Amino acid sequence: MPRTFLALRSVLYVPGSNERAIDKARTLSADAFIFDLEDAVAPSAKEQARARVCAAVDAGGFGRRQAVIRVNGLNSHWGYDDLIAAAKSRADAILLPKVESGDMVRQAEAIIAASGAATPTAIWCMVETPRGILHAEEIAGASPRIRCLVMGTSDLAKDLGAMHTRERLPFLTSLGMCLLAARACDVAIIDGVHLNLEDEEGFVHACRQGAELGFDGKTLIHPKTIAAANAAFSPSDEDLAWSHRIIDAYKEARERGEGLVVVGGKLIENLHVEGARRTLLLARAISELEKERAQ
Ligand code: COA
Ligand code: MG
């Protein structure tokens, strides 16, 4: 179970060069925002975007929703300064792009540690290259600061020569390897973006597929997709009722000295109860976010 249980159903990219979008983020009900300094920002706008994003994050207003800064890679002209600035900001996490090894994580971690920031920021890692996929376990386990893997399926498609199809068969191996790595290392994992903003039905289908595979949520590029992602990755009322029911039944069985119980014709063991507890933790995290929005 992740160390701090976060709802991360909808994770919206917000271009760091777009002041209007950054301001709008505070009014949106995504569970997390990735303020982007990398792919979405032109070279000529990088420095300005860095200053704008750090100022916006420091100004706050995101409550429990995660404010994450995606920095440029350390092999670029901007990566080092981005990391220092993001580390000193009030960002909840720093997202490293195109991570390909544990060493890349540790290098960034050392810079964050040396930045003089009061509290060490959590690290999220993009896995979006063939080498990154092959090293996903090494990456997810490289540091206790790592909280989340983020799939970058657009970059991956380019490197693989793969096509974006409805069922995403060209990506299933890569998605599966990263899911295994994230779960083995006890970190969250977020699915890649759906690029076609006019394909609402395909988007909902991709969200459902991501939830079925085991992702915690989906990365998004437009606010209009937040509600559908939140719905797809939330437990249903039936899931919640079932979770309560099997937790109670299992507790009673334990009190009778039994290690398993049959509920509604289904065999329930401890592993099901652990899953049910996780569902309730997610529901609680979601309800806290909703309560905060209602205030
Ligand atoms: N985050 C926050 N707000 C956003 C947003 C985003 N990603 N995308 C759009 N909005 C806002 C717009 O600013 C606009 O706000 P307003 O009503 O206050 O003016 C509103 O949502 C409607 O936007 P719309 O006109 O439909 O879209 P657009 O033409 O402004 O932008 C994109 C379309 C695709 C350029 C934009 O959604 C975007 O930049 N997405 C993120 C891309 C990105 O970060 N890519 C890198 C990672 S894959
Ligand atoms: Mg990318």
Structural overview:
With 295 residues, the protein is α/β, with parallel strands linked by helices. The chain folds into two domains: 10-232, TIM Barrel, CATH 3.20.20.60; 237-294, no CATH class. It is built from twelve helices and ten strands. Helix 3 crosses helix 4 (102-114) and helix 11 (237-255) packs across helix 12 (270-294). It starts with 9 loop residues before the first strand and ends with a helix. The model has no long low-confidence stretch (mean pLDDT 96). Bound molecules: coenzyme A (COA) and magnesium ion. Magnesium ion (MG) binds at residues 39, 97, 128, 152, 155.
Lateral arrangement of strands in the main beta sheet: 1-2-3-4-5-6-7-8
Give a quick account of the main beta sheet: strands, pairing sense, barrel closure.
8 strands, parallel, barrel
CATH homologous superfamily annotation of the largest domain:
Phosphoenolpyruvate-binding domains
Q: Helical segment tally?
A: 12
How many distinct beta strands? 10
Helix content: 40-55%
- Rg on CA atoms, Å: 20 Å
By CATH reckoning, the class of the largest domain would read Alpha Beta
| Count of discrete domains | 2
Which ligands are bound? coenzyme A, magnesium ion
Enumerate the spans where pLDDT stays under 50 for 5 or more consecutive residues. none
**What global shape is seen?**
globular
